[in-house]
Each structure stands twice: as C-alpha cells, then as structure tokens.
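User:
Can I borrow your eye for a moment on a structure tokenisation matter? Would you put together a sequence-and-structure record for a protein of your own picking? Please set it down just below, with no commentary around it:
AI:
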Amino acid sequence: MATHKTSGGNAAFKNYNNQFAHVSDPNERRRLALAEIDKAPFGWYHVRVVVVAGIGFFTDAYDLFAINLVTSMLGLVFWQTGLIPEHSDTAIKVSTSGGTVIGQLVFGWLADIVGRKKMYGLELMIIIVATVAQALTSESPSTHIVGLLIFWRVIMGIGIGGDYPLSSIITSEFATTKWRGAMMGAVFAMQGIGQFAAAIVALIVAVAFKKHTQGKAIDHCDLACKAAVDRMWRIIIGFGAIPACVALYYRLTIPETPRYTFDVQRDVEKAAADAEQFTSGARGNANVDEIARITAQAQAQEELVIPKASWANFIAHYSQWRYGKILLGTAGSWFLLDVAFYGLGLNNTVILSAIGYSSKKDVYEMLYNNAVGNLILVCAGAIPGYWFTVFTVDTVGRKPIQLMGFSFLTILFLAIGFGFHKLTSHQLLGLYVLCQFFFNFGPNATTFIVPGECFPTRYRSTSHGISAASGKVGAIVAQVLIGPLRTRGKTKTNPSPWLNHVMQIFAVFMFAGIFTSLLIPETKRKTLEELCGELYGEGIANEERAVAAATTSPPAEVPTDEK
C-alpha cells in the first residue's frame, strides 16, 4: 500500500510520518514510530507534559488537604461552641473520597472508550465549578451548610478522581522510556506542593484577618470575628480554582496519545503524524490526508496484531491469574497504603501537640498554629520523600522502592504503636516525619506510577482507575471504621486512648503491603510495548514469534516448469 507523505520536518525535528512512509506493514510502522517517542532525548515537550499534568495534581492535592484546615473555621462560623461536631467533620472529608472513587472508575473507563484527549480537561471543569460553588455556598433555614458542602465535595471528588488515571497514563504514554518514572513521579510530587500551598494560603489569611480574630475566645467569636473567619475559609477553598483555570487550556489542546491512536483507534496515519508533532515540540493535533488515513485505517483493522478491547475480552483477560495478579497487586497495594496514609493524616492534631502547635489561647492562635504546624509536617517529611522518588525511581526501580517503603513503614508503625506511652514528644515527632518520608519515598508514589505502565494500552486507564479507586476505598475505611477506634473509651483527660492500637493496626496493613507488592512487575527502563509483550504476549512479541516460526519452518518447494 502506498502511504501518503506529509510536509515539514528538519534536522532538529524529524518528520516521522515521512520517515516511515515507505513501510506498508502497520505493525512495523507502529513499532518504529513509538520507538522514536521512547528513544527521544528529554526535552521541553516532556517538561510541558509534566507541568500540564502536574498543575492538575497540585489542584487535586490542594482541594483534598485544604479541608483539614477549613473544618476548624467552619466550627467557628456555624456552631455556637466554636467546634465542628466530629460526625460532621468526618462526613465532609469522607464525601470527597466517595466522589473520588466514582471519578476514578468512570473517567478511567471512559478514557479507554472515547480516548484520553476527549476526557482530559473535563475533570478540571468539574473541579472548577464545584470549587467555586463551595466558596459561594451558604446555609438557609431548610439546608445546613454540612449538607451543601458534602454535595459539592462529592462533585469535586469526581473531578479529582478523574485526574488520577488520566494524568498518569497520558504522562506515561508520552514519556521517554529512560525517564518515564521520573516524569510520572514529578507529576505526583505536585501533591506535596499542593499540601504546602494549602497551608501557606491558610497562614496568609490567618495573618491578614488577625485584628478580627486575635483575643477572641473560640467559644465567644463575635460577629466581626465570625465574618472574618467566614471570609477566610471561602478564600482558602476558592483559591483552588485558580491553578485549575491555568491548566485547563493546555489540557484541552493536548493531542491524543499516539499509543491510543495506534492500539485502540487503529489509526496508523494519525498516530504517526501525532508522534512527529509531539516530538517536534509543536502543540495540538497533527494534520493528515484524510483519504490516506481512511485507507491505512482499513488496512490496520485487519493486520494490526493488537487485540481489540471489549468487556468480554477484559473479563477473559483478567480472569487469567498471570494477568489478574498484576491488577490485584496494584489495587491491593494502593488499598493497604491509603488505609494508613489517610488514617495517619486524621491524627495530625496529636503530632501538632507534640511540636507545640496545638495551643488554642484564642481564635487567631488556633488558626495560625494549625497552618504553621501543617507547614512544618509537610516540609519535614512529605516533600523530601516525593522528590527522593523522582530522583531514584529510574535507577533503583519501582518495585524495590515500594517494598522498602512498606517494610520501613511496618517497623515505624510498630515502634509508634508499642512505644507510644514511652516515647517523648520529640521522638514521636521524629517517627511521624519518617513515616511521611517513607510513605512518599515508597508506596504512595509507586502505587501511582506502576499502574500507568504495566497494563496494555486498551485497558491501561481502566486498570489504573480500578487501582486508584481501591486506594480511596482504603481512605474511606480509615476515616469511617478505623479512625473512630482512636477515641474508644475517651475521657476528658485522654481523648485518644486507643491511638496506640490504631498505629498497631496500621502496621498490619503495611506488612500486608509487602506481599501485594510482590505481585507487581518491575517496569524500570522498559518500553510500554516491551512490558505488554513480556506480561501479556502482545504486539511486538507476537510479531517476533511469527518471524521465528517462519525462519524455522522448512521452505516451501518452488514448482518449476518442465520443458
């Protein structure tokens, strides 16, 4: 089949479409075009992908963790005692996780059905609308503020959930093989920057409204104090929409990933042109000749060896243990991790008390110390952990980092749990910071990275969504079931008598994570096609077997004409 050539290309930016225009076999053309993406030197177009995906993750983390700083402000504004009831606090926080589970599953599935490009940006629109709605919402005689916030945080959670599989797989499918782990890790590391930004904004507004809150008792916040705090929490929540608006344009204009165009849409012409467009540093979608595109697509439907996606194929695929165990490993590891990761986050107040940032002499001191204390915790453990992963994940490997993280976390939680009443406040703080470090230089980062690499293109987004949703189910378990155990048998002098036992329970979950981590493959420095070939016997692996079979079979006799 003659292949249409396109114009453009130079010494710096090769025209991969023309370069492989002479190749008529769509499987070989796919392999050659994707190899150019895999071998491309790290450039500004890779930075652009990381920044566009990372800003979204910054927004996700900001919105998820800002609520921990906001709920104490809600108590001051809407409750006479100045304190939000525990069940209301839990309901507001859990609602986001519930929405996130829905978003991860639905957006993950849709990105495999209609494409990454068509879904990317939609999740940010949902986040922007829900964030602005929260900042502007107010209760009425018939509707309580808690119900309104729960509604909008479920909607926001759906958008946040959609960002998990989309940002991971888009970064993965555009990344160069050598630095794919670092690129995906850098996207996820924006979660730490988002937490930092939430605490910074809370600190700024606390200082800005100091004259209205200083000297006001928590249970006697007057009208001026309530008005100031009411403005504060709305500013903190509303600020989360700003980075989302910045990233929206770039997400809407990102091209479809060539791997999806090749393997799911089976559009060889468009995929090759998009590969050239991306590696040249240009933005948007490439233009192709429609006649040549239709002709090539018809040929590819028959000749591409990549299996087609369907529910029957999905069930049959993962029903086989050798494939199902990988999904079990990624989903199980994420579930076990998030039980402890979010469960520990519920007990920040205990740690803040240990470092002297829990005093509540007046409203200002409470809000100021809450913001500064969270800044210290994030900077001391979380952010360094994220970036240690970024700098080592492509040399050490994903699986060793995950196994190391779960192992150290098991030891640390056992130390906290069994030594809780013997530890000094400084020792408790040190162990907490180490937990945060090994969460992020460990399974919190790798559970995001590996599902974006180890599944076939046609099910990559769905499988990542299932894995991520399992994690958020773990977060809900921590918040709803394990979290309340902390206060079992509480007294006025001891509000958390079971906290040490909760830490011991977390140690059991971390120990179980070691075994689920053994089910995942090592993906370091392997192309996505190599992984599909090794793990699932697809694509180039099928081609190589066919070539090997052809070369080992006896040659057919060539008939000769008798004279």
Observations:
- The first helix runs from residue 16 to 19.
